[in-house]
Amino acid sequence: MAWNLSSDRPIYAQLVEQVKLRIISGLYPVGSKLPSVRDLAAEASVNPNTMQRALAQLETEGLIFSQRTSGRFVTDKEETVVQLKTALAKDVIREFIFKMKRLGFSKAEAAKLIEQTEFKD
Amino acid sequence: MLKKLIKYDLKATARSFAPIYVIVMALAILSAIFERVCNTFHSSSGLNVLNVLSGITLVLYFLALFVVNILTLVICMRFFYDNFFKDEGYLMHTLPVTPAKLIWSKVIISALWGIATVAISLLSAFIVMTVGRGQFSYNWFNFHFGISHWEPMDVGVLLSGILTIVIGIIFIELCICASLCVGSLVPKHHAAVCIGMIIAFCIVHVVLAIFVVAFMQSAPNSNWLIQTFRAIDSRNDGYKQITICGLLAASVYMAAFSALYFVIAQSIMKNHLNLE
Amino acid sequence: MMEPILQCSGLCKNYSGKEALRGLNLTIERGHIVGLLGPNGSGKSTFIKLCNGLLTPSTGTLTIAGMVPGVETKKIVSYLPERTYLSDWMRVDDVLSAFEDFYADFDKPRALDMLQRLQIRTSDRLHTMSKGTREKVQLILVMSRRAQLYLLDEPIGGVDPAARDYILNTIISNYDKDATVILSTHLIADVENILDEVVFVSNGTIVLHTTVDEIREQQGTSVDAYFREVFKC
């Protein structure tokens, strides 16, 4: 998964989102150890201070916890991750429905259209 | 830190000196060999090819000797300039050492290479003169240099001579260094200013020398200096003592001016450095 | 609380009849990666040379870690100039031993590791390398020092994108959180993501000193876009 950072929004906020995506997608499995701040920063080509800030934010949100000597870990609480997944999914859906409404489809019509549309993986 | 600088500078300059030293020694040896061969066959008129070759290598050797001595000064000066005022200066001037140490290092290695050049010159000349003529014998050596007849005074002359040469090398080096530094203050005309400074310094020395000579000429006979002079002169080996005095006086004079040049160069580098 | 790594006030520098810097006032705290951004000729290089003692101020003051630039500051400042300052005749291990000799904070194993990853051997001579490789060697040497302040003058000017990524990556990976990096460039878009703070310089004065995130939050644009706006001709 590549780090997609756009240039007009604060970096740390985007890093928070991107790490969340990685947790949800299982790239950073529940309970697993995260790479070091330096490695993450190098991977994303960002300032280590900014990555640090993003990780600190994720800690306060409870998605990550740190152990003094061992580093940072993804939360081992499955439900937290599921909650996050659901919340993000709902954001996507809300946006979808909003767009469909602008095209003139009701929520029910949009749902039916989903059933009919083929989706090639 | 100074030792490290010297090591680094020696490494950098050795690359330029090694080949020219090798050439000089090679030509000396070659010339000596040809000379030997000529002598062995006792031919001064016959075997013309050998004679010609012998003559050519001898001429080439002297040419090389001359060039090496000039090049020694040129290489050292070039090194000083490139190292301080060109791209390498970005490295030199950001090292955690004082400008004084930087200059000292250059001065010391110039003196070392100067001595090395003198040594190589003497050694190669020795080879040409003795080996070539098949006269590598103690007696011949003794005859020409009379080492077994030497007295302390002779050793004194030799040592003062060497001291004067070494200080002389440092003196010239620092004079050119100071001039280069002054030249660097005027980036657009640095070459002209530098040469101008050297000429100016030379004029100062010439004027001072004239004053000394004039003083010596016009001083009244009762002057204590003149009387001491005459007293020494009238002794048996008086001329050696005077020579030593003269050499030491010259050394002191050059040392004093060397210090002045050093101060000029160092203060310019410390306070008014302007790299491009 | 240690003093700021860099402080200058009323800093002016004139040379060759040109006013390169006029009355600069700047304080930089430790632990940040700071971008010194400005058009060519705005005084960025002059400022950096003043910081590492290659130039002396005409008026005003400048201190590095509370000290005037001199032998002590050179021990803690690691400088990467725009040009190559390594002599052609040198081999890589000559340069490594030179840095080891002169700088107590030089981390030789780290330098060797980085060189090895680029497949540069210690016996290689500099004059056989391409310009790009030589620049990378210089960068590796500079970043292998455990310095308190890194001054990088146009590190990515004139390099291809792959080399640029390597350079930025090297800076990030070797960055120690208590150290400060000041990086001057006019190619902003490429370095934005690694900067904490930015200082906009124009005509020898500081136009702006803020953080990247502030610009993005308040202006809603990238630093690069904002810069173009600020310096529109």
Structural summary, described in words:
The complex is a heterotrimer of chains A (121), B (276) and C (233). Chain A has 121 residues and is mainly alpha-helical. Chain A has helices spanning 11-24, 37-44, 48-60, 78-103, 107-116; strands at residues 64-67, 71-74. Chain A has five helices and two strands; from the N terminus they run H-H-H-E-E-H-H. The two termini of chain B are 27 Å apart. In chain B, 26% of the residues are buried. Chain B has helices at 2-40, 48-85, 89-92, 99-131, 138-145, 152-184, 190-218, 224-233, 238-271. In chain C, a hairpin with a 2-residue loop joins strand 8 (197-202) and strand 9. The mean pLDDT of chain C is 89. In chain C, helix 5 runs parallel beside helix 6 (161-173). Chain C has a single domain (6-230), classed as 3-Layer(aba) Sandwich (Rossmann fold), CATH 3.40.50.300. The termini of chain C are far apart. Chain B binds chain C through residues 1, 4, 7-8, 11-12, 15, 87-91, 93-98, 187-188, 271-275, and chain C through 15-16, 49, 52-56, 71-72, 74-75, 77, 79, 81, 83-87, 89, 94, 98, 101-103.
Q: Which CATH-level-2 architecture of the largest domain in chain A? A: Orthogonal Bundle
Q: So how many helices of chain A?
A: 5
The CATH topology name of the largest domain in chain A reads Arc Repressor Mutant, subunit A
Largest beta sheet of chain B, briefly? none
Average pLDDT level of chain A: 88
Largest sheet of chain A: 2 strands, antiparallel
Architecture blueprint of SSEs:
The complex is a heterotrimer of chains A (121), B (276) and C (233).
Chain A: H1 11-24, H2 37-44, H3 48-60, E1 64-67, E2 71-74, H4 78-103, H5 107-116
Antiparallel strand pairs in A: 1-2
Helix pairs in contact in A: 1-3, 2-3
Chain B: H1 2-40, H2 48-85, H3 89-92, H4 99-131, H5 138-145, H6 152-184, H7 190-218, H8 224-233, H9 238-271
Helix pairs in contact in B: 1-2, 1-4, 2-4, 2-6, 4-6, 6-7, 6-9, 8-9
Chain C: E1 6-15, E2 18-28, E3 33-37, H1 44-51, E4 59-64, H2 71-76, E5 77-80, H3 92-102, H4 108-117, H5 131-143, E6 149-153, H6 161-173, E7 180-185, H7 188-191, E8 197-202, E9 205-211, H8 212-219, H9 223-230
Parallel strand pairs in C: 3-7, 3-8, 5-6, 6-7
Antiparallel strand pairs in C: 1-2, 1-4, 8-9
